[in-house]
Amino acid sequence: MAATLLLPLVFLLPGCGPRVTNANIDAVNREYEAAEKTGTAVTLKEVESILGQPTRVVAFPIEKPSVKELPGARYYYEQGGHTVELLFIDGKLIRRVPHFGEKEAPTISAPLRKRPAK
User: What is the pLDDT of residue 42?
Assistant: First the structure.
């Protein structure tokens, strides 16, 4: 219910100065937490609707134990000398977004591949 009320406000934010603010990051994190509770995920498009287009995107493959490779992407938002990194696997946000200046959780090295058995 709260996410439904916040969604219209999210679309108004891009016209109000800098797109990437701690308030916008909080909005992404609220969406992430709501999605976790419902067993869904936050998509690339949903993040872009809140934060806008990233400064840079780095794609990488993720290999699952079933030998299926999943597409991964890192979105970087840079502003005022600070960078925020978002990590997506199969088009879905996989962790909370740190605020500017906040220490991030360790990132996944790309590409991730299985090492052959010796």
Answer: 94
